[in-house]
Design brief:
Radius of gyration: 20 Å
CATH class: Alpha Beta
CATH architecture: 3-Layer(aba) Sandwich
Order of helices and strands: HEHEHEEHEHEHEHH
Shape: globular
Largest sheet: 7 strands, parallel
Distance between the termini: 46 Å
CATH topology: Rossmann fold
Strand content: 5-15%
Structural class: alpha/beta
Length: 238
């Protein structure tokens, strides 16, 4: 008997394959809708941070101040749409003169849409949502947070390092929170040759909101906030 002859697929497996195929159309629709709506809001800055900090927490207050300054400076502010730092970011932008954008994600817990979104999108898939953050942001501003925040930080650093994204500012806020991680980067990642010493220059750290805004404008001195032709081409291949 020839073992290489494919065995018939049972009905349950065929049903799974059909569902997966149709699932791809759902993913495509998320990309199409988000791209159409996000194209109109540039320049934009993405803010990240913990969903678990309450109103009045120093990180909440800091995020709200940064978002308000960015909004009044002409940047749409893009956040995750949920509570905590995400809410503070949308809230600060909502009070300013530029759009407050929420890229919401469907989760079983923790993610409840905040009420400070001028433009609200809902995603089922993390990777589609992450692609929108990367594709349409002129800068990433990262406040203290947990695994999700670290995931976004690692994602954008990898994209910028490898040239899959434009070289945008990646700014950490509140140096005491990030001090240990940055020391580990220098000691282990640079020290053991996992990244080049110059890769540490991809990261900037500020404590004051105005310093964040000034750093973004300084980065774009002499060029437009819009992606260059070569950068647009790279973004097509995220």
């Amino acid at each position: 008997m020839n073992d290489k002859i494919p065995k018939p697929i049972d009905n349950s497996a065929q049903g799974t394959i059909a569902r997966e195929a149709w699932h791809l159309f759902g993913i495509m629709s998320e990309f199409v809708e988000a791209t159409e709506r996000m194209n109109a809001i540039r320049p934009a800055v993405s803010l990240f941070g913990s969903a678990r900090v309450p109103q009045g927490h120093p990180y909440y207050v800091l995020a709200e101040r940064i978002a308000r300054l960015l909004s009044d400076a002409g940047f749409a502010v893009v956040a995750g749409g949920g509570p905590g730092v995400m809410e503070a970011s949308n809230r600060g932008a909502h009070k300013g003169r530029s759009p407050s954008v929420g890229l919401n994600i469907e989760l079983s817990r923790e993610q409840l849409a905040n009420s400070y979104q001028d433009i609200s999108l809902v995603f089922r898939h993390f990777f589609a949502r992450k692609a929108m953050f990367a594709k349409f942001s002129s800068a990433y501003v990262v406040l203290p947070g947990g695994f999700g925040t670290l995931d976004e930080l690692g994602e954008v650093l990898a994209l910028v390092q490898t040239g899959k994204s434009a070289h945008i500012p990646v700014i950490l806020v509140h140096e005491p929170y990030w001090r240990g991680l940055l020391a580990w980067f220098r000691e282990k990642l640079v020290g053991e040759g996992m990244i080049a010493p110059g890769d540490m220059n991809l990261i900037q750290v500020f404590d004051e909101p105005q310093g964040v805004v000034d750093a973004i404008f300084k980065h774009y001195e002499g060029r437009s906030f819009a992606p260059l032709a070569s950068e647009r081409e790279s973004l097509l291949n995220l």
